[in-house]
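[[Sequence with tokens]]
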Amino acid sequence: MSGPMRQVFRSKLALILGWVWMAFAAANAVDLVVRYSGPSSLVAGAVLGALTALVFVTCLRPAVVLTEDGVLVRNPLRNVFVPWTGIDDVTVSHAITISSGDRVVRCWTPQTTARERASATRRGEPAAPGRGRFATEPARTKGEQAAAEALAGRTHADWVAEQITERAGAARQAGAAEPGSTEARAAEAGTVSGGMQVGWALSALAALGVALVLVAAAVVVS
């Protein structure tokens, strides 16, 4: 199969905000430990821990990962793996939807907003002709206009969906994927239905579990 074997797609804005929060949370956690003042510090730590767990689950963990064997969708609480030959359809509304047999998974990220869709559509519109000497934007060449028209209406989510569709089509043409790799993925993910393997995300459950323990401890102490 041509192209890179592993590609990871996610929301850049969510990733940046997530790591900014993690830095903020780490600094505040150190401050709470250094200036520990009893129950009030424990309550503040519990709130900080709960918010950090939510940020991790919703901002840092979600991604769409294209591997050699198939596509792995990391949603907040679930991991869904679909082998390339098991993908029946890929569509995009505000989110990417992958169909396999009678099962469907909606990808948490990347998503498309109405504003992003409108901006992508405007990119393909012909440049307005300059008006007199006050025109500030140079006219597009034929090549630039053709490229703009090719990208018209396409958002990041659309482009990711195209990568999934192309690699699934290439896999079907090349024949079935190696069975050993698919079985290994099935063992990691859990249940199997129509080629789609679904399982709980242990890292997300662990983060939420720690946050729940902190909150319970704060309630008991306060």
The first helix runs from residue 12 to 34. Helices lie at 12-34, 39-60, 114-123, 142-150, 156-174, 179-189, 202-221. Residues 82 and 200 are 15 Å apart (CA to CA). The chain has seven helices and nine strands.
